[in-house]
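As the next step, I wrote out a protein sequence along with its fold in token form, included below for the reader:
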Amino acid sequence: MAEAILYSFRRCPYAMRARMALHVSGLAYEHREVVLRDKPAAMLEVSPKGTVPVFVTAEGEVLEESLDIMRHGLAQNDPEDWLGRDDQALVATNDGPFKHHLDRYKYASRYEAVDPEQHRAAAVDILAEIDRRLAASPYLCDDKPGFADIAIFPFVRQFANHDRERFDADLMPHLQAWLQALVSSELFAAIMTKYPKWEPVET
């Protein structure tokens, strides 16, 4: 049976959450680091949309969505019961409204007639709700991280890092502690290993 393959880009938040779930699951795969301005033909052949992550299972199934890759890995092995600590509504808010505002806050020049401060304020409103939720427990669904935490964490990190001084000044102590715990975790360090650009082996 062929080895599974993950096409990834180190700094992509979607790829980060996929790698975190695959790492916890222990699923074996070949990591192929992609340079987005020079996408490999092998990736485009299996996934013409040209975005990462892309996961090709050992059976040849192509998964093009990071949440599907997460669930696939954890369906094989979920030693920390991440799937038992999920919140699909919260993840949908992250991938929908929060990502919408994050993009227009961080990349305002890419959009026509947007006010980045307005979008930052809307994003902070969503984060404040998460902060209030985290007042009850250190993670979103329990006292241990689960699927919901890992699914939204890379995007909160991206928001925070865009202007760290302002984020640190926001009155969201529970969210800030949650983010720091995940950023400093052994899991995050493990999936942020640097890989050279993948090149096909010529035969």
Observations:
- DSSP finds nine helices and four strands in the chain.
- Residues 4 and 28 are 7 Å apart (CA to CA).
